[in-house]
Write a structure and sequence with these properties.
InterPro entries: OMP_efflux, TolC-like. Residues 348-404 form a coiled coil. Keywords: Cell outer membrane, Coiled coil, Membrane, Signal, Transmembrane, Transmembrane beta strand, Transport. There is one protein chain. This protein is 64% helix and 15% strand. It has a single domain, classed as Outer membrane efflux proteins (OEP). It has helices at residues 2-28, 36-46, 48-69, 128-195, 201-236, 250-256, 273-294, 343-409, 415-449, and strands at residues 31-34, 74-83, 90-93, 104-107, 113-127, 243-246, 299-312, 324-335. The longest helix is centred in the middle third of the chain and has 68 residues, at 128-195. It starts with a helix and ends in a 10-residue tail after the last helix. The chain has nine helices and eight strands. The strands form three sheets. A four-stranded antiparallel beta sheet has the order 2-5-7-8. By secondary structure, it is of the alpha+beta class.
């Protein structure tokens, strides 16, 4: 009996412990609620690519200082301690010490222990490569900043697309659920009519085919909704299984993105981020040409060296009586490139050709950006027109389906005509949803191409 009670108490304790851990997990699991703008702001700070781009800018700032620091004073020092466990022996002629000529005497030079140290100050006085390097630091920073802006644009576009796709999936599930309920009711009603001998079996089978197809589409849409949430979470930079609630709906969001004034907006191509990145590449190539030319110039460095040495038969280097001997050197070093058998010239010509390639790429980028803007403007204008068309098509499809349903149940129409009208309605519903999504995504693409915002450290 005692063992039975112990077993019961142990089971109860394990249950309480498991329940407590599960409750703690539920409490610590985060959930989020977003409007689209809130999702964009959150994603720009937390998206994985955005965070990497921010780190890249920070790294570039450190690289900039690394370049500058190479021309600033460099101080180094070292301390050496030596203890000869067995001192080396040297043979000297014995006659030096009064011995017989032709014989040698073994002697040991120096002390058993010695301590020495040096400190050196190096200063770059002139180096053409260093001057070019310092001038290139600004371009290096611009490259990383523009790369971050490009990343932010891509992240924003991904978030908007993922957010809108979740709304589309939710709306699609809702519409399909209503369609399934409606067709199921028609199926059940027709089945009863058939059982009473007032309808053909084909009518029942035709509705059953439509119902089964809708149920399959509904199941698929529910799975797609789950995947859409995971894609959104990934674009936001949060775990894919995090619970997220969206407070907007697809229709109202599409209306917010319905902006005819954007079609007339223009910016200089030179302010487009892709053009700026290509321009940075051309500027970097130009700097490499100057760098190769600068390598043909002399370089001049100066240095100051100070050192000390102490000698003793035992370790007395911290005693006040210990003697130290010092030395100091001041000097300069001039390095003059004289002849390289055409090596420097070949390298310079290579960099010059790379610069010319970069200029060609810049020209190509300018024309490509113009084409992309015109194409994006055309796509956005079409999406606005198509959105209005699909709304009208849905209204027509609803009226046609309603008329065919009345005719069918009054015995004036066939099940085939009703099924065809229903398929037309279902297609119109999905096409309207897709047209809403296209309005949102095409506007985002056009806005990115026309975005001339400057770099911000706050994002």
């Amino acid at each position: 009996m005692i063992f039975k009670n112990i077993k019961i108490y142990a089971s109860f304790f394990i249950f309480l412990l498991t329940a407590s851990l599960w409750a703690q997990k539920q409490e610590t699991q985060e959930s989020y609620t977003f409007t689209l703008e809130e999702a964009i702001d959150f994603g720009l700070k937390n998206n994985y690519s955005s965070r990497i781009a921010s780190k890249e800018v920070e790294k570039t700032l450190k690289q900039k200082w690394e370049i500058i620091a190479q021309g600033l004073p460099q101080i180094s020092g070292n301390v050496d301690y030596q203890n000869y466990i067995k001192q080396p022996v040297t043979l000297i002629p014995a006659e030096i010490a009064g011995g017989e000529p032709g014989t040698f005497v073994p002697v040991r030079f120096g002390t058993k222990q010695n301590l020495g140290g040096t400190a050196t100050w190096n200063q770059l006085i002139f180096d053409g490569s260093y001057i070019v390097g310092v001038q290139s630091a600004k371009t290096l920073l611009q490259i990383s900043e523009n790369a971050k802006i490009k990343t932010q644009q891509s992240v924003k576009e991904a978030i908007i697309s993922a957010y809108a796709n979740v709304l589309l999936a939710k709306e699609s599930v809702s519409i399909l659920e209503n369609n399934v309920n409606s067709i199921d009711k028609n199926f059940q009603d027709t089945k009863k009519i058939f059982e009473n001998g007032l309808a053909e079996e084909e009518d029942v089978e035709q509705l059953n085919i439509t119902l089964l197809g809708l149920q399959n589409n509904l199941n698929r849409s529910r799975r797609m909704l789950g995947l859409s949430y995971e894609m959104l979470n990934l674009s936001l930079g949060i775990p894919v299984d995090t619970q997220v609630t969206l407070v907007e709906d697809l229709d109202s969001l599409a209306m917010k993105y319905y902006d005819l004034s954007l079609l007339a907006k223009e910016i200089p191509v030179e302010e487009n981020i892709d053009y700026l990145i290509a321009e940075n590449s051309a500027e970097a190539a130009k700097i490499f040409v100057r760098l190769e030319k600068a390598k043909a110039l002399p370089s001049l460095t100066g240095f100051v060296n100070y050192g000390f040495q102490g000698f003793s038969e035992s370790f007395t280097f911290f005693n006040k009586e210990q003697d130290y001997f010092t030395q100091s050197i001041l000097g300069v070093s001039l390095n003059i490139p004289i002849f390289s058998s055409g090596l420097r010239s070949a390298r310079t010509q290579q960099k010059q050709l790379e610069y010319e390639q970069a200029l060609i790429d810049l020209d190509q980028t300018e024309n490509r950006v113009r084409l992309e803007i015109n194409s994006a403007r055309n796509d956005y204008e079409f999406s606005l027109e198509n959105y209005q068309t699909q709304k009208q098509n849905l209204e027509l499809a609803q009226r046609i389906e309603n008329k065919n349903q009345i005719k069918f149940f009054e015995g004036l129409g066939s099940s085939f005509e009703l099924s065809e009208a229903q398929r037309q309605l279902f297609a119109a519903q999905q096409e309207l949803l897709q047209s809403m999504l296209n309005v949102i995504t095409t506007k985002t693409t056009l806005e990115n191409l026309l975005d001339n915002s400057s770099y911000s450290n706050e994002k």
